[in-house]
TrEMBL record:
Residues 1-140 form the PiggyBac transposable element-derived protein domain. It holds the Pfam family DDE_Tnp_1_7. InterPro entries: PGBD. It comes from Rhamnusium bicolor. This is PiggyBac transposable element-derived protein domain-containing protein. PANTHER family: DUAL SPECIFICITY PHOSPHATASE 26, PIGGYBAC TRANSPOSABLE ELEMENT-DERIVED PROTEIN 4.
Amino acid sequence: MDNWFTNVPLADRLIYRPYTMTIVGTIRKNKPHIPPSLVENDKKRQLGTSLFAYSSNSTLVSYKPKTNKIVTLLSTMHTSSGTINKTTKKPEIIHTYNATKGAVDTFDQMCQNMCANRKTKRWPMCIFYNMINMASINSYVIYAHNVITRGEKPIIRQMYMLELHKKLSEAHQTSRLETVTNMSHELKKIIEDVLGR
């Protein structure tokens, strides 16, 4: 996960049934569950050093790669000890994150390329638009997996999004066409064309 999603309560919830999932992700330094000593940029702290904090089922690591930078990660995969890679001198948690973060970057890129976001000052709408983006990408991934499993070629994402839009709005358009009596002839024709009538 990237730091948009990673937090301690979510990690604690995901590790138990019915999910039984482990996570590795960067975590924002302003989260209340992070001890202040892990996020303070102490001038005396040497470059390349790591600090660890443990709970019953997770590990927090604070790594200092540069003078004015501290990277914090949370892992429920690495719970026993703070293993440091002998070659790079970085914690194993960072190596695991770097090896698997490609999906997070791809997901973020897909959200930017084709998104439902609209300019708004209302934060609930921002969350709603983000949920629409995530749901549409996840549905496309499931669709593509199912189609490839059958040995077929999936349609491109843009065409998929247009089809998804049509299917999701079809019931509303049909209802509007049948119930609204004073609809203009032009609008009625547009809805009929979209519905294929």
